[in-house]
Amino acid sequence: MADPYSTLGVSRSATEQEIKSAYRKLAKELHPDKNKDNPKATERFSEATRAYDLLSDKTKRAQFDRGEIDADGNPRMPFGGGYGGGGPRPGAGGFGGAEDMDLGDIFEGLFGGRAGGGMGAAGMGGGMGAGFGRRQAPPQRGANVAYNLRVPFADAAAQKPQRITLSDGATIDLKLPAGVVTGQQMRLKGKGQPGPGGAGDAIITLSVDPHAFFIRDGDTVLLDLPITLDEAVNGAKVKVPTVDGAVMLTVAPGSSSGKVLRLKGKGFHRKSGERGDQLVRLMVDLPADDKALQGFVETWATAEAHNPRADD
Predict the structure, then answer these.
(1) Phi and psi (nearest 5°) for 218?
(2) Low-confidence ranges of the chain (pLDDT < 50)
(3) Which residues, 6+ apart, have CB-to-CB distance to 219 below 8 Å?
(4) What pTM, to 2 d.p., does this model score?
(5) DSSP secondary structure string, the chain?
(6) 162-165, long-range: CB < 8 A, 24+ apart
(7) Distance from chain centroid for Cα 306
């Protein structure tokens, strides 16, 4: 990924608010729902989301500014190899395998027994054969290799397979776990560095990207949906975005701001295999400085009108 500051169009000294404002502006401009025939806009939207996620995290931003991680959040490793939960086991290389060696066996081999074994020729000969030759440390496996994989919000909810390229150039389509959350790890056996005892593993840390207008609450997806006054008063069928694509939703006549409607099975997958729901909160959007509407309300207010606070 390109430099996150350049992607958002801000300077390295930008404040948190400047970074947030820059991202919101790009998200509105580049969102896939507004650019269905422009794949480059979708790609730029994903890049902007990844850049915002890194720069909005104080720890990651500081690590990036110090050169400790790259723009994708991966550690900059000058010598390659493992990282984090991976890496060579203690004793790999150098003197090797010291933690697996039984020092009691060594002394038994040297002195013919752990206690009172004597120093006779028979004791020395038998001990040497039983000590050093009897037990060896197992060959070391190769180092684990760490990867960071960013997952789009909708893909995480729908469990869409994610393609990742490993250090050896191989590409793998990963099946996401149900209920995937940021920080969750996946292990690919034998996909790490080679070693005399076999290859290590690939450790993949998942990070779910934030969304421009969806909010996650456990396995539920929340959405504030603007509707017009006419749609609220008279009712309507309106198009609603979901993680699986847009659907039509019926707004009942007389719907107020704050009314919540439920879309079954449009949330995140649960470990049980079922899916959570999407909750849609209606938000009546009134036009500003509409003289006709103001005149109607003034006339309507003079009549006996409903008082929503009458029972307060």
Answers:
(1) 65, -120
(2) 79-132
(3) 179, 267, 268, 269, 270, 275, 276
(4) 0.54
(5) ---HHHHHT--TT--HHHHHHHHHHHHHHH-GGG-TT-HHHHHHHHHHHHHHHHHTSHHHHHHHHTTSB-TTS-B--TT-S--TT-BPPTTSSTT--GGG--HHHHHHHHHSSSSS----HHHHHHHHHHHTTT--PPPPPPPBEEEEEEE-HHHHHHT--EEEE-TTS-EEEEPPPTT--TT-EEEETT-S---TT----EEEEEEEPP-SS-EEETTEEEEEEEE-HHHHHH-EEEEE--TT--EEEEEPTTPPTT-EEEETT-SPBPTTS-B--EEEEEEE-PPTT-HHHHHHHHHHHHS----TTTT-
(6) 164/204
(7) 48
Read off the tokens for 145.
């290799």
Q: Which of 17, 26, 76 is nearest to 51 (CA)?
A: 26
What's the CA gap between 105 and 114, in Å, rounded? 8
Residues whose CB is less than 8 angstroms from the CB of residue 71 and which lie 6 or more positions away in sequence, other chains included: 1, 2, 3, 4, 50, 51, 54, 64
- Please report, for residues 112, 113, 127, the alpha-carbon distance to residue 121 in angstroms, rounded to integers and kept in the order given: 9, 13, 10
pLDDT at 30: 86
Residue with tokens 């794949």: 39
Q: Please give the structure tokens belonging to residue 226.
A: 């603007």
Which pLDDT score, from 0 to 100, does residue 304 have? 60
- Domains of the chain, CATH where assigned: 1-76 (1.10.287.110), 102-131 (no CATH), 140-209 (2.60.260.20), 215-289 (2.60.260.20)
pLDDT of residue 312: 56
Contact between 62 and 73 (Cβ < 8 Å): no
CB-based contacts of 124-132 (< 8 A; 24+ apart in sequence):
130/105, 131/105, 131/106, 131/107, 132/105, 132/106
For tokens 């500051």, name the residue.
5
| Residue type (1 letter), 14 | A
